[in-house]
């Protein structure tokens, strides 16, 4: 976190650049990197948490980042579960979900997982709505049947 505070105008600038891929500029007064917060409306990003909680083996900590909606409304619980399920299916199938231990343990049929999420009441980046997501890969069942536990909370 020290490097972020040293180089960036704010943690929000860092997130907008590294998660939402917004271009940076240098603040002429502070010399720090800053980002224009426009144009992230409706964007959804699912990223490995850069500062994960310590979890037991097999547990993973990601963050679901959500750009504002036109109405300013927050997503429903069902919307959130759909976003997370879709993101986990996409990244496990594409082998983009690297586990906390850095291993790539997925095969082309590994879209079986379970997750829980929560909204942190003391968000470090309160201006960009985000949720903490904890998930694990489930072992394939012996009969090849799909595990139905990946429906969320």
Describe the structure in your own words.
The structure is a single chain. The protein is of the alpha+beta class and 153 residues long. β1 (24-26) and β2 form a beta hairpin. Residues 105-109 and 144-153 have low confidence and may be disordered. Helix content is 20%, strand content 22%. It has 3 helices and 6 strands, in the order ααββββαββ. A 4-stranded antiparallel β-sheet has the order 3-4-6-5, covered by helices on one side. A two-stranded antiparallel sheet has the order 1-2.
Query: What is the succession of H and E elements?
Result: HHEEEEHEE
Euclidean distance between termini CA atoms: 30 Å
Question: What fraction of the residues are assigned to beta strands by DSSP?
Answer: 15-25%
Give a quick account of the main beta sheet: strands, pairing sense, barrel closure: 4 strands, antiparallel
- Shape type: globular
User: Strands across the major sheet, in which order?
Assistant: 3-4-6-5
Total number of helices: 3
Q: What does the average pLDDT come to?
A: 82
- The total strand number stands at 6
Q: C-alpha Rg, in Å?
A: 17 Å
Q: Uncertain segments of ≥5 residues (pLDDT<50)?
A: 105-109, 144-153
Helix and strand content put the structural class at: alpha+beta
Helix share bin:
10-25%
What's a concise summary of this model?
The chain is 20% helix and 22% strand.
Note the topology.
Elements: H1 2-7, H2 11-18, E1 24-26, E2 33-35, E3 44-48, E4 59-66, H3 77-93, E5 113-118, E6 129-137
Antiparallel strand pairs: 1-2, 3-4, 4-6, 5-6
Key words describing this protein structure:
20% helix, globular, 153 residues, two-stranded antiparallel ribbon
């Amino acid at each position: 976190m020290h490097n972020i505070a040293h180089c960036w105008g704010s943690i929000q600038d860092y997130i907008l650049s590294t998660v939402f891929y917004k271009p940076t500029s240098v603040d002429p007064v502070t010399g720090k990197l800053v980002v224009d917060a426009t144009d992230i409306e409706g964007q959804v990003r699912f990223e490995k948490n850069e500062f994960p909680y310590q979890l037991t083996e097999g547990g993973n900590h990601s963050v679901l980042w959500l750009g504002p909606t036109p109405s300013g409304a927050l997503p429903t619980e069902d919307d959130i579960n759909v976003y997370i399920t879709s993101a986990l299916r996409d990244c496990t199938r594409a082998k983009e979900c690297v586990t906390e231990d850095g291993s790539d343990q997925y095969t082309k049929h590994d879209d079986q997982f379970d997750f829980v999420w929560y909204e942190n009441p003391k968000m470090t980046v309160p201006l960009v709505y985000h949720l903490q997501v904890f998930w694990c890969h489930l072992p394939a069942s012996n009969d090849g049947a799909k595990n139905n536990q990946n429906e969320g909370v």
